[in-house]
Amino acid sequence: MAVTITAGRSGSDVHRILEALPDWFGDPEAIDNYVAAAEDGRHGSLLAVEDGVVVGVALTRRHFPESAELHLLAVHPTAHRRGVGRLLVERVAADLAADGCAMLSVHTVGPSFENMPYARTRAFYRRVGFTPLEEHDGLDWSGPSLILVRTLAG
Predict the structure, then answer these.
(1) CB 103 within 8 A of CB 67
(2) Domains along the sequence of the chain with CATH
(3) What pLDDT digit, counting tens, does each position of 109-125 carry?
(4) Which distant-in-sequence residues (6+ apart) come within 8 Å of 73 by Cβ?
């Protein structure tokens, strides 16, 4: 079955997907914060739907007209390694570029914290066109956060 990317909000689907990803989202408070962001109109929200079921989500936050942040990208483990994350990122990038945005950033756990799931996350972001910019301790959590950026075609 084909995956369709659509604009929409679903805090319950975000909760279900994040709970299925304990290696990345094991903190209940963080999950609650992402669920709230999914319902917050200040965040853009795209859903990846397959056979009527939401299998992925991308939340964005436009900080300035020229730049935005990929606040959350999550794909249910049953849909991993099938291109769902890439579809979401490419749709986010296309939509933002069409609206005049030039730069997209994303934060993830930095490489100085050795963790295989996050090593895979960093590799994924590189494959979809993000470049590491800088690593900071204590930015998004008590450990290192890596900021990656991607230029958007206009």
Answers:
(1) yes
(2) 3-151 (3.40.630.30)
(3) 999 998 899 999 999 99
(4) 56, 57, 58, 59, 85, 88, 89, 106
